Please model this.
Amino acid sequence: MPFGSLWLPGVVSAVAVFIVSSITHMLLRYHKADYKQLSDEDSVAQALRKVGPAPGVYFIPYCMDPGQFKDPAIRKKFEDGPVASLIIRTPGVPGMGKNLAQWFLLCLLVSFITAYVARHTLHFNTDGMTVLRITSTIAFLGYGIGYLQDSIWKLIPWSNSLRGLLDAVLYALTTGLVFCWLWPTA
Model:
């Protein structure tokens, strides 16, 4: 099957996922639980301004050599806390335009990878349930599997990852349904 026959489901599924994600984030609002406010945010912000770290990802206490965990001073820092991952962004009011554009590009990428794999595994006139099952599975991997890695290595709370996985299921089903609807026939 020529790859060009799947450009329409690729684009339409990316647009559909973008719309579904907008609806879930604006109406359902269950992602509000992803972030918590510090009890004394102002003093923490003031301390960070004083230090002036550049935008980046920081870990407190900083220890990237496993051999350092034997050092009693390092162990004490971890035991006393806080133990934290800290993301510093460029100062300024966040603009959603750039984030939404990047999100749409990711939706296109996942949809076109889904189309690529579907093109090599499925044929014209494949039954709808098989198209749905294969394309939804591929899309789920694209949208969801990174959440598990975030909880394992970046210490993102598992509850955040589970909410992200719920989104991934919705996006995967959306992608699969669009591919099923627009699947080419011979």
Summary: Helices lie at 7-28, 41-51, 72-80, 96-121, 128-153, 158-182. The first helix runs from residue 7 to 28. The beta strands are 56-60, 84-88.
